[in-house]
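Dig into my protein:

:::
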Amino acid sequence: MKRLLFSGVAVALAMLVAPVVYAEENPYTYKNLPEKDDQIKMVVAHTVNMEWSSHTATLKRFTELVAIYTNNEIRGEIFPGGQLGGEREMAKQTRQGQIHVSLPATNNLATMAPSLNVFILPYIATSTEEVNYLQDNLTPFLVPRVIEEAGVRIVGWENSGWRAFFYKSDEPIEKPADLAKFKMRVPPNPVMIATYKAWDANPVPLGWTELYNALQQGVVDGGDNPVTDVIGMKFYEVINRMTRFHYTILTHPIIVSEKWFQGLSKEHQEAILRAGREATDYIRWWQPIDEAHWWEKAKEQNVIVTDIKDETEWVEKARKIWPDYYQNIGPDGEMVANKAVAIIEEHRAKMK
């Protein structure tokens, strides 16, 4: 008994005199790597102003991997929250080499690189696994086209999640006819606008940065975006419902200025490409975990969530627009779309 009592006292005394260990950030991240005189500066930019989102997680990972694989010979600096402009503006700056890496939405980059409209065709894929497989197998074909069209190189992908309707209403959106009474914001992309019209909806093309004020002022009644964007940007202050379905997923290619890329050594180019591949794999693991958290937050904010159980009518109406918009992909748009469909069918066959 005395021995046990002595042991307890000894432990208590040890705890009193032991040094306190404080939680600290990693001392070596992309933010604070040692500076060198001959370091190559890499300007990285995006529009999201949340500290942690799939955007920030992707680009932080990419930037750190570039530093690792170049032995700190390339030092990245990230400019979040649209500090260097909107997505389209930053894509143009990336083409010019003023920005070296950016993360525009696929639908926004498609204004410069129309080949990417193949990813915007509604219901081209209906699961995250299909989207990932399509990206992996179609991107090598698209890379030289996008370089030619936009002067940027796709080195990886970020997926933000499936676009879901968000809106204010007493009743849920469950079928296309339900959209008729809403003015729905859509990105200014012709394929996405046509998709809403195919559902007999009232699309209002509007930039992302204008959206919150437009919702407040009643210019629009809702729109569609992944839950991370909707809840992270506090849209629950002006909407009360969301409806989940699978017409398109919001994706952002990691793009690198081709002008800047071609000025790098072969070793540095390989490091950039490797970092892009690994950042893609990382965010495919990270994003679904993060998204589940945001759906919980939506419920905490009393947002009513509806799932469309049968999307047949949505699919049939939306896919009818495809032939009219092959030209938005390019002169060979139908061939590119068929190539994408063949890749998806290949994946489905493997999954049987």
